[in-house]
Amino acid sequence: LDKYMDKEKNLNNLQLYFCYFLVGFFIYNMKITNELSNPDAIWNDAFYKKDRRWEASLGRFMISFLQSIRGNVVNTAVATIMCLLLLSGVCLCVVNIFRIESLVYKLIIGALIIISPGIGSTLTYYYCSDLYCLSYFLAVIAVYIMIVGKMKRKLSILLACICLMLSMAIYQAYIVVAISLCHMYLCCMILQENSAPKKVIYKVYTFI
After folding, report:
1. Is the pLDDT score of 1 beyond 90?
2. Which of 87, 74, 73 is nearest to 28 (CA)?
3. pTM: predicted TM-score of the whole model, two decimal places
């Protein structure tokens, strides 16, 4: 997606991504070195035990499928690090969606996302925390493609729909993240003095 960006911006994004990861690593280091889990995670400690039909009944059929690919093995350190890598990508996408220029604001926004109570709680579900964060990442990527992506409109909508579909197949709750980002972006467009009503309506149509 970033092939149209210049090398300097790519380098800045890479450095920012690394900063986000370090923030998460220092904050959640105890969850990597110790098993600070919840009852569900204790039940599914070293091996994923939930029945595929049970996950499918909740609409989360992709969880059992992805778990089967990695042999249903649960590793707390690997799961947490994977979460931090995905969350760093989420933060990077969010600051690019809203075209945040200030480095201070970029760091603050990323830190607030990473240290939010919802993320802290999610990371205690070791047996599926990385999959939940993957769902989160896909929901944000869907919005990123529609707003920042430099491709044709129909193709961007198609790719965004695929990302959102996969996100909901893992965990439906993160569709709220995509809706909220779209809503916030529209609010920013409305508040801009040079934003024409026709352009705002067109973007609403694209999001829908």
Report:
1. no
2. 87
3. 0.87
